[in-house]
Amino acid sequence: MIVIVDERELVTNGYNSLFDREGVACAGFRSTEFGEWVTSAPDEDLRSVRAFLIGDCNEGSISPRQLRDRSKAPVIALSEQNNLENTLKLFESGVDDVIRKPVHIREILARISAIRRRAQEDTGFTQIGAMRIFMDGRDPEIDGQPMPLPRRERRILEYLASNSGRRVTKTQVFNAIYGVFDEEVEENVVESHISKLRKKLRERLGHDPIDSKRFLGYRLIV
Fold this sequence. Notes:
Layout: E1 2-5, H1 9-21, E2 26-29, H2 31-40, H3 43-47, E3 51-54, H4 64-67, E4 75-79, H5 84-92, E5 97-100, H6 105-120, E6 125-128, E7 131-134, E8 141-142, E9 145-146, H7 151-162, H8 170-178, H9 189-205, E10 210-213, E11 217-220
Parallel strand pairs: 1-2, 1-3, 3-4, 4-5
Antiparallel strand pairs: 6-7, 7-8, 8-9, 10-11
Helix pairs in contact: 7-9
């Protein structure tokens, strides 16, 4: 899930629509609402956040450094001012990157992936058996051959891979893919997506790489 903070509802709604087209959940806040949410949200909800995008907010209302006390997700400033002084000021506040608008949604996602790769010091993909699972929106590969997947199934596979070795619950998967505030979609849709994903992976791999246990959740296995 991507969290965007901006005082203008038109902006947050616009980003929500654009990210949704890429199969990425997005939640929008005004700065005061965001402050209340981030201090009270359960750890499980915050772990579902892929990145925080900070747009037009009241000055001093958001501290990226304090935000990191609760989350390791990248903090990116969206700037409408094309000048060096403002860019340096934003970096000094503690953000991980500054993106000047207008910008394509795919560039934002690519920058988020790059920041996360640097933080994790990895190669940008997770190798699990014959599966190579990328974290930048590319389809996974099996034995070096691309395996096209619908966006939701690809995001679920990415989320399972990013938690390799750990079980994740259905709620955690739902929050990561649809966002913690999506009340229009039933949580059980996760089971449907995973069922379809398992069938495709089983056909390519010859076995089911998604281990599931009732009440405990899912994890990828070799």
